[in-house]
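Table S2 (continued). Query chain:
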Amino acid sequence: MEYFLKWRLCSECEFIRMSMPAPPRLLDLAGQSLLRDQASAIAALERLPMELFPPLFTAAFTGRHSETLKAMVQAWPFACLPLGALMKEQQPHQETFQAALAGLDVLLAQEVRPRWKLQVLDLRKNAHQDFWTVWSGTRASMYSLLDPEVPQPMKKRRKVEGCRPGPKPPLAPVEVLIDLCLKERTPDESLAYLIQIAQQRKGMIIIQLDSIQDLEVNCTWKLSTLGKFAPHLGQMGNLRRLLLSHIHMSSHTTLAKEEQCISQFTAQFLRLHHLEELYLDSISFLENRLDQVLRCLMTPLETLSITNCLLSESDLTHLSQHLNVSQLKDLGLSGVSLTNMSPEPLQVLIERASATLQDLDLDECGIMDSQFTVILPALGHCSQLTTFSFCGNPISMDVLENLLRHTIGLRKLSHVLYPAPLESYEDVRGTLHLGRLAHLHARLKQMLQELGRPGMVWFSANPCPQFYKLGLVGESPYQ
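Corresponding output:
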């Protein structure tokens, strides 16, 4: 009994000890004490060691000490202030965000700036995510992982004595980095305030187009509008990802004007030396002109997605022969009608990308049995393929079984999304016979098990709301 009581007492003490929150650190207490006196906090910034700036800034940001924040931005001792990462963590009040920008405004107006100049205000929420946790002391071993533009903690201030002052260098601008999304609906408060500042400072703010890496134009544009935008696209020399959607030709535009706009647009690809991902959705002018776009690509693409577009057989032939598709990792042709085309260009395209292709999307392409049979050997060579989707194509059960046999040896292939086979429909109106469908699903599942790949997941997308899964994900409710 005595042993039991001692053990119970010790266990309860351990439980109490583990459930108590950690006491605040001395650094945190000092920061909170300093922030209670705004005048003292601002006066202390001139003598504050640089390693104390981040934790004090975090405390001021969280506690909404706007004037202190404003002063800290002006005295910030590092090249970069990753405010976006802190905003993502802390869910800022609008007043604190405006105070930080007001501090930047004061800094830009100064003729003489602090010794450690702020060069970059980074408002991107997914950049420098380790900075604030490192400086808070919770991840002190992570110093070496900081971005080079953010100076590492505990860096010594060096005094250079006996040097004659040289000519006064011009004041460098402060670069603001932001993930910008312009939509028709009202922007959030922070973005609205930033746009307001930009409009007020037209003479001071310069947008550097060559800093844009990811661009989405997801709105309905006429071809003439795209032509006017084209020169700006050409200035985005570091662009890595481009998405264009819903570009249509106007019935009032002459053929000569159309060709001029298209040439203006395609010529800009000659200047995009870092483009890796290209997404073209609902682009009305691509038919018989795809080669015009491809010829201007300067680097091999990793992702090419052409969806809901009209293409000719010659377009597909040019695509299959182009040098810059041989290293594709993702290829999407969803919504591109291939019903009346020869399957050979698609077969060549898949074969040429087979060493690198990881994701292939041929949904709603109208591919028939005879066409699918031609591309099966090329699919069997795609050693890196992980996902293959071809929903919405009229394929028979025989071809599905043949596909399974051709791809069973692809060890990285884990997900296949396929249409309900033709045999599962009762009539030409597309009415599914659920009993037949369940039987066909069971047959495919049995083949996966017999061929040693029970973990490969095959999904069937059907008109009914339920997805049927094979493999480890579960049974069909109709089995």
